[in-house]
Amino acid sequence: MMIENTIENSATTIQFYAGLKTIGGTIFEIKYKNERFIADFGMVFQNKEGVQVRPQTIISDLQTIGVIPMISGVLKTDVVDKNATIAISHLHLDHMGLLQYVHPDVPIIMSEESKTLYEHLHTIEEEPNVNVGQQVKGVPFHQPFKVSEHIKVEFFPVNHDVLGATAIKITTPDATIVYTGDIRLHETDVDTANLPNIAGSPDLLIIETTNVQEEFLDSNPVIQSEADQLMPALLEIESPIIFNIYHRNVKRLETLIEAARQKEKLIVFEPETAYLVQAFNLEAPHVRYLIDEQDASKNVVQIQRIQPITLDEVRDNFSSVWLQSSYHHIRTLLELPVKGATYVHSNGVPLGSFDPMYAELLEWIEKLGMKIVVLGVSGHAAAAQIKWMADAMQAKVTIPLHGFTPELLTGPYQTFLPEINKIYPISSLLKG
Ligand SMILES: [Zn+2]
User: Fold this and answer.
1) Transmembrane residues, as ranges (predicted)?
2) Pairwise CA distance, residues 353 & 347, whole Å
3) Which of 73, 148, 181, 310 has its CA 20 to 30 A from that of 224?
4) How far is CA 207 from CA 101, 181, 222, 402, 407, in A?
5) Distance 104 CA to ligand 1 centre (A)
């Protein structure tokens, strides 16, 4: 009886705090005895970010309005739980946007590539309030890592539209769980394709379902590489280009720089993006960064290996320039002869019509006399590919989430749709 009791008490549990039937932030926790492993720490509703909250009570206010989930022991305002670790699958806001509110004594782990990018994002002040050097540990791929006495994790690289994305395998004494994070499966995405071979068949597979939607179920998607999809379209454009990109996708920067080289254009980045271009060694003779002549105090980012260019110079050479324009800098375009230019929207912010700012962006583009071309590539595998992945992983229980209609995915054996905040013993899920 004693023994049975011990087993009952020590059995691994899983709890989801956010990100089930939505593409909003994902957060879940694996617990064994008092050891806690939390996977991802994403902003649940990005659009509420704009809501003014009181600085003294920011965390509890954000919890009240549902931006931060009700999770104990890991937030700045909590008495810290020394048995908790947070792991981040990749550096998208819906997977890590809440790290800024994490208690400084809670260890955070991520892939080494993610950590490097995260450090650079701090340098350009795009990510606040975490002492990356002290608190964050970069964990190499394919190396088992003990997060606590009984919980071990291993990172497997996957492809997504951000550098450093990882799937996470979590092993406890009585359960194995694989979490895919966000995954893409273009023809060059060999890391994702390899996941079923190297991660083993787990008890539980937690898999994203962003593109698992009714209208996509029977479609036969284009699965070329990202560059193969974008390059020809970029090269076809004859007018000057204004582009809006998401610069955490370092590969996309590389594609744009190469396309501009082939078109014999100067490519001009905003300083923050230029900093990343330099940090990842993508600088080239035709790359420039825009320097603010009027206000030198704004030129805070240190860039040594890329030539600066002024707005006047951009204006004088406008027909031979491709210019980056983030939405929050769009006013700059008022000073340039952009009428007739092509506005290339390539997964920058605002990303799509679900964001209220998107309508404003379209209005700006129209008023300025530009033509918009959407040249994005989804970071997510197609519905049929997600189904392939779930089947190939051969998990005893498949948990689809992080999509609008996760219930459309069924695993090869059992499929389970959890509820928010409920604690499930994994043994009970395996029993069905
Ligand atoms: Zn993502």
Assistant:
1) none
2) 12
3) 181
4) 26, 7, 21, 8, 12
5) 24
Ligand 1 centroid to Cα of residue 23, in Å, is 9
- Over residues 361-381, the pLDDT tens digits come to 999 999 999 999 999 888 999
Do 43 and 28 meet the contact criterion of CB atoms below 8 Å apart? Answer: no
| Helix (H), strand (E), coil (C) string for 34-48 | CEEEEECCCCCCHHH
- Distance from the CA of 378 to the center of ligand 1, in angstroms? 10
Q: What is the CATH number of domain 226-374?
A: 3.40.50.10710
Return the closest-CA partner of residue 134 out of 152, 154, 119. Answer: 119
User: At which residue do the structure tokens 């806001």 appear?
Assistant: 93
Give residue 25 CA to ligand 1 midpoint distance, Å: 9
Is the domain 9-51+71-216+382-431 a CATH 3.60.15.10 member? yes
Give the tens place of pLDDT for each residue, 304-363. 999 999 999 999 999 999 999 999 999 999 999 999 999 999 999 998 887 889 999 999
CA–centroid distance, 90 to ligand 1, in Å, is 7
